[in-house]
Structures are given as C-alpha cells and as structure tokens.
Amino acid sequence: MKLSDFDFHLPEDLIATRPASPRSSARMLVTQGDTITDNHVFDLPDLLQPGDRLVLNDTRVIPARLSGHRHRDSAQGPVSAGIEATLLDPQANGTWSALIKPLKKVKLGEAIVFSDDLSATLDWVEDGQAYLRFNLSGDDFDKALDQAGAMPLPPYIAAKRPADEQDKTDYQTIWASNSGAVAAPTASLHFDDDLMQALADRGVSFTHVTLHVGAGTFLPVKVEDVTTHKMHAEWGQVSPEAAAEIQATKTNGGRVIPVGTTALRLIESAARSGVIEPWEGETDIFIYPGFRFNVTDALMTNFHLPKSTLLMLVSALMGQDRMRDVYTHAIARKYRFFSYGDASLLIP
User: Fold this and answer.
1) Which of helix, strand or coil describes residue 346?
2) What single-letter DSSP state applies at residue 197?
3) Strand partners for 129
4) What DSSP assignment string belongs to 116-170?
5) What pLDDT score does 9 carry?
6) Which residues contact 30 (CB under 8 A, 6 or more apart)?
7) pLDDT, tens only, 143-175
8) Could you say which DSSP state residue 326 is in?
9) For residues 346 and 87, what is the distance between their CA atoms, to the nearest angstrom?
10) Which of 30, 74, 87, 95 is the one with CA 20 to 30 A from 337?
C-alpha cells in the first residue's frame, strides 16, 4: 500500500468552516453493500435497528489555544514579545507539553502572561516541544483557561478564520464530560438532544468511552509505504461497565457502531484479544487495510483528509475501492468535508 493510494482531489469550497444548524440537520451519506444513499443525520433512527448500540467518546475539548506576551528588561528598557501557545498533554510532573510560536523568543524560566489570572513559565524544551508550568492548577486552572483560551480549531479551519466564542459551543459534543482533548471527536458534533431521544425511543442504546484526542490526529503521513507510519499515542479508557455493555450487545446479536474514528480506535484497542475487555492506557493503534475488526459492525464518521490515517481506517473497514466510490459520490454531491462537515454511515 502506497500513500498515493489514499489521495484524492478535494475542491477548496467543500471544506466546512461552520457546522450545520441545528446539528442533526447535517447531510449524511449512507453506504451498505453496493448502495449509496443521501440522507440527513436526523434520519439516523430510521436507519438503525432496536438493539443497536452507539459507542460515544465523552472526551471534552479544552480551549487549548492561548495568546500571551513574555516581558523582559533590556538595555533599552522593558520589551515584550507576542507568544502563541497550543497545549497538548498534561504531564505527570504537573507541566503541560505545548507548541509555542515563536519558541526562540522565550528563555527557560521566563514567564508568559496569558491573562490577569493565567501565566506559565517555560520549564524545558525537548525536540522542539515546550513544557509549561502554570501558576494555577485544578479547578482554578480550568476556570482561567476557559476565560483566556480559544478552541484549537483544526489547521484547515484556523487557516480560514480565527476561533471565536461560538466555537466553544460548536466544537464540543453535548455529552462532553472528561476534559483533556485538544481536538473534538467530530462525528459526535452532529448529535443534539432531540436526536438522542429519538434514538432511545427507537431502542438504540448508548455506551460512553473516553479517548483524549491529541493534536497528532492532524499530523500528515510522510512515508510512502503506509505500513511503516508511526501513530501518535492518545490516552483512553473503556470502563468495565462499558466493556460489559458492548459485549452484551454482541452476544444478543445487536450491532456495535462507534460514532467517530476515535471511539472505533479505542474499542478495537480494548479488543485485541478478540473480545472487548476493560482497558485503560495509551493507544497508538494504526488501522489500515488488512486490519481485523473484533468489535466494530459499522461506523458513523465525517469525511477525512486525503492521505490521512483516518481515510486508511475507513478503507480498512469498507475496502479501498468502496471508499473511492463513496468519496467520488460525496464530492459530486457537494457534501461538506472535515471537522465541521457532513457525516457518513458506513456499514460493511
């Protein structure tokens, strides 16, 4: 398999910069067998069956993008420099790994002031990645970050417009509860309360799992032989209760349908033995054609970047030829792509 096998041309005007409103009004392409049909997300209750189980990632996106200044005394007097920071992961020693621009403007031990309440010092740098120690922790840190930070929109949206207050709602699922992600599980952004009630009335069940989506989800694949690509690691958890619910659905003949590639990667990480088990830790599972799925029966997901690991994942589930047909159809019918775009329901 070559990287070029997963390339396609996407017209620039199909990249969504705002989500559909209401959320469930987004379009949804459905493919099963040889058929492709055009639907909407609000049609989902009619497309699923009683006994099906949706697996939902309940990670909560933090407003991880910060703008601040570092101040320094010089021979010419006080000087300052604008600094942009994107938080990545909390570390065991209390620091946060972060991307800082421009990193060369900050010395070890210097403070960056992000707001009247929030500041951080640069603890150390390794492989171009900074480690920041903030002046606050716990709930105080969360509150100050909510005030000072902006949502870390994907690069292809951020290049078109800055994040704003609306994104703090739009770029968060309605069930987000466990803070730690710097990117949203975007297929889940299509769900609203009315849709959840309609699904429950249909007899569809829900299981929550947690995978903290990292910035690595946007990293390009740089190797031509895709099997040699090294995935970034992300922390996740499948609780004993979640594992039991998923296994019960399999035993009873229902379908297990993760909403989003993050939920799929997590439950397949927890099922490497062949059956789903409670699981917690970091996963760098890389799913590409030839992968054996142990839990997943179908997938709801958005439309993905060319040459991305996520396009390889859906090709593993559906087959490369089938996904080429799906994406050709989606582009011809002007579906909206990427994080704020439309959805697809993929049923092998």
Assistant:
1) strand
2) H
3) 126
4) SS-EEEEEEEETTEEEEEES--HHHHHHHHHHH-B----HHHHTTS---TTHHHH
5) 97
6) 36, 37, 38, 39, 47, 344, 345, 347
7) 999 999 999 999 899 999 999 999 999 999 999
8) H
9) 33
10) 87
